[in-house]
Amino acid sequence: MSNRIEIKTENLSYCFVISGNRLKYPVGKLPSKVLAGLLDRNVINDKRVIVGPAIGEDAAVIDTGGPHYLIAKTDPITFATDRIGWYAVNINANDIAAMGGRPQWFLATLLLPETRTGQGDVERIFEDILESCRNLGISLIGGHTEITHDLKRPILVGQMLGEVKKDKLVRTSGAQVGDVLIITKGIAVEGTAIIAREKAGDLKTLFDEERLTRAQNFLYEPGISVLKDALIAAEAAEIHSMHDPTEGGVATGLHEIASASKVGLVIDLKALPIFSETRQLCDHFGLDPLGLIASGALLITCKPAAANRVLTRLQAEGINAIAIGRIVQEQKGTKIQDATGIRDLPIYEQDEVTKILS
User: Of 144, 162, 166, 178, which is most buried, counting CB atoms within 10 Å of its CB?
Assistant: First the structure.
């Protein structure tokens, strides 16, 4: 049996899982403080690196000369087993878009389980990748595919390259005190699709067929891509910060904006858009939508005077967009407000989806 244990040092607190007589990190991202400690060891002497690895930044940015920066991103698909090609292209493209850029070139590393992989499996994943690239105007330019020993399910690691005009680069770390914080679509779009697809057999008594199909199709509608959202926002006004919340949900994305920008923030819980399907699934499985994997939403900060332009343009293009809070001084902390008052925004050491998929 596995149990959790929290180990505290003078400045840090780490959560581990006890497995046998060993302490192990739980499934999901490394704790941010652990990752930050590792990144502190990294020294980049190349002045062409404009944005390097940092907590909250969505991608690396390199100056290769000329009017554009090159943006580079890599991200794996680990929670989903269905339509992983679609996930991989869109998730990686989102991080390019959140930097203000346009994704253009994709590489894929596909690891497939031995004794469980047939030609049809490979063709379905490959066609997913190609379809997703075609939809977004991206070229598949390379990668690697292999049958891998002792693997239980396919793992697809994507690498995306894109470009952004030098004066249009947006960073997670750009949020400013006084900014309005906007979210597009709704929270846990990706999490809703994953649960509805991976747990379809358990949901027949909860959802009728039409509602279950609608939840499964959150992958496409409202969709997990934020490329259109980001392009419209950047055209509408000067954007200080954009961020693509993924693992750990919108709450983790908000913490990452605050950490990267060295600011605080206050979120209005009532303003957070939560789809009825998402809420029903989370209630059924005992999950908190704030901590559920959240691709499909884009977090945007800008001056109050620009917020209405951004909201109006997004909504005119059929993209739901809502102001959910404001950026405040760092010492005020990262908070959420509801009818009972203001409290700390929760921190999710693991994505909520791991409770039912791991």
Answer: 162
- Whether residues 299 and 183 share a domain: the answer is yes
Q: Are residues 139 and 276 in the same domain?
A: no
Is cis: bond before 76, omega within 30 of 0?
no
The verdict on 27 and 98 lying in the same domain is: no
For residue 140, which of 176, 171, 97, 110 has the smallest C-alpha distance? 110
Q: What residues form DSSP beta bridges with 104? A: none
193-206 mean pLDDT: 92
| Same structural domain, 279 and 338 | yes
HSE, CB side, 13 Å, CA atoms: give it for residue 44: 14
Residues 193 and 306 occupy one common structural domain: yes
DSSP of 279-334, one letter per residue? HHHHHHHT--GGGS--BTB-EEEE-HHHHHHHHHHHHHTT--EEEEEEEE-GGG-E
Q: Which two tokens stand for residue 131?
A: 């379809």
Residue after which a domain boundary falls, among 136, 153, 168: 168
pTM value is 0.89
CATH number for position 88 = 3.30.1330.10
**Residues 176 and 300 reside in one and the same domain:** yes
More confident residue, 44 or 189: 189
Q: Give the domain range for residue 125.
A: 46-168
List the one residue out of 65, 55, 51 whose CA is nearest residue 169. 51
**What residue type is assigned to position 292 of the chain?**
L
Name the phi and psi angles at 335, rounded to 5: -125, 160
Same domain, 51 and 114: yes
Q: How far apart (Å, rounded) are the C-alpha atoms in residues 358 and 354? A: 5
Question: Looking at the 3D structure of the chain, how many domains does it have?
Answer: 3
Cβ atoms within 10 Å of 297's Cβ, excluding its own: 29
Amino acid at 356: I
Q: What is the pLDDT of residue 358?
A: 64
Length of the chain: 358
Report residue 143's pLDDT band, with 50, 70 and 90 as the boundaries: very high
pLDDT tens per residue across span 280-323: 999 999 999 999 999 999 999 999 999 999 999 999 999 999 99
Residues 223, 319: one domain?
Answer: yes
